[in-house]
Design goal:
277 residues; alpha/beta; Nitrilase/N-carbamoyl-D-aminoacid amidohydrolase
């Protein structure tokens, strides 16, 4: 791929089942579909490997990232097809035995070249009475991650992270031109905030934002918003799925557009330290 050619990315939208075996059978054909449409970089959603909100059922099934069967299956596809695959997140065991919500970037040999543990835990009580407390199950990460690939520099985020502009600014300042936002967004917050938050993060950093989502009503009883979307650095929508069903979104990213947006409105350079209030 020449430096000036657009980068074709594939965003995979899933309705991940409650077991690892079923999850791999669900996601693998969608990843292959994206690759078949020419995607050089494929992003899957948060909780790609399993979606089970019952902690008592979930925790005994978790393994280390390297031993996870879904991650292993996607590593094999990456190596077979020579494609970069970003496992948007897998629910796994940390080295200390605690659970993590971890993103993993796979290179075209199937090697895991970067990981990122979700920084911000979704601990909320929504107006409709729905509650979530991710911190009861997962240990948050402590570092931001940019992975520099021959395709582009990617800044890694997961779902609730999109509400924290400082993280996205740090990723852009560290060289990221594309920010990943894999998600399993709740339906009430998705309807109200999903697209506007993602477009804001793209505009304020002059970055592409690609968001692969879970969608629909799952075996464990939860509902997720779907509507996977790719956004350009001027805030323009490059493509989106207007539904919750499993599927693939293809988008072509002209990476030079990030440089143009940052030159036109240099917010990364113009920010100033201040005191108060």
């Amino acid at each position: 791929m020449s430096p000036s050619a657009p980068l074709r990315v594939g965003l995979v939208q899933t309705r991940t089942p409650a077991t690892h075996e079923a999850a791999l059978a669900h996601v693998a054909p969608l990843v292959r579909e994206a690759i078949g449409q020419g995607a050089r970089f494929v992003l899957t959603p948060e909780c790609t490997n399993v979606l089970q909100k019952d902690r008592a059922r979930l925790l005994p099934t978790l393994t280390a990232l390297e031993d996870d069967p879904v991650v292993g299956g996607l590593r094999a596809i990456a190596a077979e097809t020579g494609t970069w695959i970003d496992v948007g997140s897998a629910l796994v065991l940390r080295e200390d035995g605690k659970a993590a919500n971890r993103q993993a970037v796979l290179d075209p040999t199937g090697a895991i070249v970067a990981t990122y543990d979700k920084l911000h835990m979704f601990d909320v009580q929504l107006p409709n009475g729905e509650t979530a407390k991710e911190s009861a199950t997962y240990t948050p990460g402590e570092r931001a991650v940019v992975v520099d690939t021959p395709l582009a520099a990617f800044g890694l985020t997961i779902c609730y992270d999109m509400r924290f502009p400082a993280l996205h600014r740090a990723l852009a300042l560290a060289g990221a031109k594309v920010i990943t936002a894999p998600a399993a967004f709740t339906r009430p917050t998705g309807e109200a905030h999903w697209e506007v938050l993602l477009r804001a993060r793209a505009i304020e950093t002059g970055s592409f934002v690609i968001a692969a989502a879970q969608g629909g009503f799952h075996e464990d009883g939860r509902g997720t918003w779907g509507r996977s979307i790719a956004i350009g650095p001027w805030g323009e929508v490059l493509g989106k799925l207007d539904h919750d069903e499993p599927g693939v979104l293809i988008a072509d990213l002209d990476l030079s557009a990030a440089d143009k947006a940052r030159a036109a409105i240099p917010v990364l350079a113009n920010a100033r330290a201040f005191t108060g209030p």
